[in-house]
Amino acid sequence: MTALLTLHELSKRRYDAPDRYLFQGVSADLAQGQRTALIGISGQGKSTLLRIMARLDTADGGDILYRGTSFSRWKPNDWRKQVCYVAQQPVMLPGSVEDNLQTVSRLNGTPFDRELAGRCMEALGLASTYWAKPASELSGGEKQRVALVRSLLLRPAVLLLDEVTASLDPGSKKAVEQLLNDWSQREGTANLWITHDLEQVKQASDRVWFMAEGRLLEQEDTQAFFACPRTDEARRFIAWQETESPENGKEEVPNV
Ligand SMILES: Nc1ncnc2c1ncn2[C@@H]1O[C@H](COP(=O)(O)OP(=O)(O)OP(=O)(O)O)[C@@H](O)[C@H]1O
């Protein structure tokens, strides 16, 4: 598969201890149509990595290439049209839900694809009655889904998803997984998805990137990663997530 996005030796220093790295030596590819889950315990810098990839933050070393061209040669706004970040805490712009959905076409001076927006909203359980609502009055889960549709309308080549199902009920979560799956198949979008839900990783990703100890320790096909993790850190992480994570009532973080 051809790489759409290539990370080359990316590093980020800790702001609380600049002689140490939050992460370093991160090299990886995202291919067209590929669905990749980015996992690891809290505080590894997963969100920071995604924000750097979307050029909302800067790396302290390394390069990112989109279709073989370094980010430094792209205008930031052109880059962000291709590499789009969907935040865990969605920011709604002032105005109605429809105003938010129309943001992309307004910014790009392109026609608003009402039919596509309607299909995506319906697929996520947000009927047309939502369109006139003030966006500020939506629940957290509704905002998350509207923000996702708003990003899809940009038709980015790479979609960076930061725990976008974190505040959704199981039904809405499934709907998001299904829409993103159909979308990447149809549009060829490469998805990189941060999640702490290993069932979601197994069902909704082709590849796994596993971060620990400030490194991208594993990049594997999802089945191979769970069947036979190569590192002790990944083995401990999987065992902890499946038996002892806070979701299962335990608090202690594994030594990965
Ligand atoms: N330069 C830096 N940039 C960002 N975060 C930094 C930096 N230096 C130290 N940190 C700390 O490292 C952590 C990085 O947080 P980040 O959200 O990127 O990690 P994460 O792996 O996505 O965590 P979570 O799974 O909890 O969302 C935070 O605790 C932050 O305070």
Summarize the structure.
With 256 residues, the protein is an alpha/beta fold. It has 10 helices and 10 strands.
For the structure shown, list the relevant keywords.
256 residues; alpha/beta; six-stranded mixed β-sheet; four-stranded antiparallel β-sheet; globular; binds adenosine-5'-triphosphate
Residue fraction in strands: 15-25%
Sheet with most strands: strand arrangement: 6-7-8-3-9-10
SS-based class: alpha/beta
Count of separate DSSP helical elements: 10
How many E strands? 10
What is the quaternary state of this protein? single chain
Mean pLDDT: 92
The residue fraction in helices comes out at 25-40%
Q: Element order, helices and strands?
A: EEEHEEHEHHHHEHEHEEHH
Biggest sheet character? 6 strands, mixed
Unreliable parts: none
Gyration radius over CA = 18 Å
**Unique bound compounds:** adenosine-5'-triphosphate
Distance between the termini: 31 Å
Give the overall silhouette.
globular
